[in-house]
Specification:
Length: 257
Amino acid sequence: MPLIDTHAHLFDDRFAKDLPAALARAAAAGVERVVCLGIDAESSRQSVAIANAHPLVVAAVGIQPNSAAEAQPGDWEAVVELAEREARVVAIGETGLDRYWDRAPFDLQERHFAAHMALARRLNKPFVIHCREAEADVVKALRAESANGPIRAVMHSFSGDAATASACLELGLYISFAGMVTYPTAQNLRDIAREVPLDRLLVETDCPYLAPQPVRGKRNEPAFVAHTAALLAQVKGASVAEIEEHTTRNAKALFGL
Ligand code: NI
């Protein structure tokens, strides 16, 4: 059965030596698609280049909230141009809000988030949300955006509470779980995952960060998404095949694959 790793950062230095081998391992593990997301203009360009070089990979372009303060004049325009012109760009992101790292003034993050959502709507593409300790702010921004029409988006590496998950589901979003949901201390996330309907569930690695439990501590890579899918099957009392089938169908619907 196939799997789709809906969130990877393959441009990271930690893949510089073995990206083709890592993608071959992903394919061997049943991963049929990897979405590689930029976090700034340069990594967005790199994500497109990787997608153009590897049939397994598609790209998303954006300026992540923690990169917002470092964005130079012209960076946003470069992201827009990639989104408009490059056939393998399937989504806008990652974008969102982050109060944890505090690397960019919050009002600047909010302006960036709004610009990403507007670009996604103009180009009829989904967007990918990074949210860290800013759940109420993200939900508020999404509610405002929903006045413009239905929202096509995913809360990536979900780490919020049950109320946030409900609000996101109500707004029509998908919810994606990364390696964190497999960690022994993350019972709260497993309780939330149990309640997310199968038709709104996605899986991701967020590699190279935070590898799932059996391979925790290693550099994360797309093949490891299978561990997260297996855990979700346990949590939801479903078969691994059911999780694979639903999450793959959902990813295809969201990203238009
Ligand atoms: Ni990410």
